[in-house]
Amino acid sequence: MGNKAVQAEVVDQQVGSQTIVVWFEDQYLESGDSFLKKTSEFNGRKRSEVSTEVMASLKTLSNRSFNRVKNKLDELEDAGQISDVKQHWIINGFSCYVTQAGYEAIEALDGVAQVFKKRNPSTTSGTNMGPEFLKSVPPSRFDVNSIESYPWNIDKIRAPEVWSEFGITGEGSLNVIHDGGFKLDIPPLAETIYTNQGETPGNGLDDDGNGYVDDYHGYHFDVGKANLNEPAIRRGTNIHGNLCAAIIVGTFEAGSKQAIGIAPGAKWAPVIGASNIEQAVEWAIEQGADTYSMSFSQPNLGEYRSHWRKVLEHGTLCGLVFISGAGNFAGGPNAAPIPVQMRNPEDIPNVVLGVAGVGEDGQRPFFSSQGPVQWDTDHYKDGKVNKPDFATINFQVPCVDPEGKLTNMASGNSLAGPHMAGIVSLMFSANPDLLPWEIKEILIGTAQDIGDPGFDYQSGHGFVNAYDAVKAVLDR
Ligand SMILES: [Ca+2]
Ligand SMILES: [Ca+2]
């Protein structure tokens, strides 16, 4: 687990080999501590109101700046210097492919503040492991009264107590899972998959006019298609996206009444798009998502880290809680030193819950990445930042196989993030009006101190459990 880069057949029929993302001068948030100042301005308001207001402001800014350069971009496109221009609103800017001449022309454009080089998308091709769309979403078999068992991690995270005592199972919340590949038709996940009601799947049309054809369950932003299947060539039994999704919203294991997910009454939507995080986050916001789980980790981004941070800061003001596992780089062949054991995006302060974990015995496994991290980019100069934020579960976790049976055993912080996403989904189900930073405050207030006393660089504020977190939401 970790970086999802795989042996790749690079899909690149564009004019240049380099993808860039461009910032215009007027950003909604300035750099530095502008995010924290903005949150205090919004305190006491409802999440949906804040989100609507911020989205409108972001889109106004984006249209104003983009319209000023649109003619010039058309000229550069006609001259073969740029291609595939994508306007963004989550930051005020756009992405495109460029030749060297195109790069220089864009840097010189009026109103352009900064150009970041992006990682070009890598994709694999192969036989689909499952259908592209579900013809119909099967009814959920989950029912609190008919549960026969649950695996140790669901017990330790105290989800069953939330279901039985509060009657809260995640209903009304939507969890986006940003990963590398999925198999959509296994029963525990098919029963909770999201459907975009404005879109007719498989007709080759963008029915809801949002710019994406057939984005019914989710979307693969890196190839510009709705097919989210894990290619069969990539893995045997561990389908990474499925492992993560099942921990958040899995219902009953296939063929049994074993409850395997933390928020089985919630919905989930799969997305792929590490090279197009702007589009993926915009899509999640417009579908009304509550959590955005990223079980991947990118090293050595340099200044491009600032871009990710700005996208996720703006996304948080639009109501999303971003979550990412702490990474698996404290030991083993890919070991890295502190302060780069935790990488992008789990190293982002305030707006990404960076989650480490423990095993059934409560002990931290050797691989679990540690903080602190360092921020000293052109735009963010926090210096040393305390990370990780929290701990959940990351060692020898019972996980789904390609048939939806709980026969896999997997370890890694790829699983710690989803445990947190499931908990946050239950919290939003208990009170959808909470602001993302209020969710974090409640988690800090209810985390159980483990490891060294107080905050520590292995488990953050401590071990989080669903029961105390949801109870605190209800008591608020
Ligand atoms: Ca669409
Ligand atoms: Ca369609």
If you had to describe this structure to a student in words, what would you say it looks like?
By secondary structure, this protein is an alpha/beta fold. It has two domains: 18-117, no CATH class; 144-475, Rossmann fold (3-Layer(aba) Sandwich), CATH 3.40.50. The protein has helices spanning 34-42, 47-78, 100-107, 152-156, 159-166, 187-190, 240-249, 277-286, 304-317, 416-430, 436-446, 466-475, and strands at 18-24, 82-88, 93-98, 112-117, 174-178, 219-220, 267-272, 291-294, 321-325, 352-358, 373-375, 383-385, 390-393, 397-399, 408-410. Residues 1-13 have low confidence and may be disordered. The chain has a seven-stranded parallel sheet, with helices on both faces. It has a four-stranded antiparallel sheet with strand order 2-3-1-4, with helices on both faces. A two-stranded antiparallel ribbon has the order 11-12. The protein binds calcium ion (2 copies). One calcium ion is lined by residues 199, 206, 208, 210, 212, 215.
How many structural units, i.e. domains? 2
Whole-Å distance between the termini?
Answer: 37 Å
Label the overall shape. globular
For the largest sheet, list the strands in their spatial order: 6-7-5-8-9-10-13
Please provide the count of β strands: 15
Question: Which range does the strand content fall in?
Answer: 5-15%
Ligands in the model, by name, code or SMILES, are: calcium ion
Biggest sheet character: 7 strands, parallel
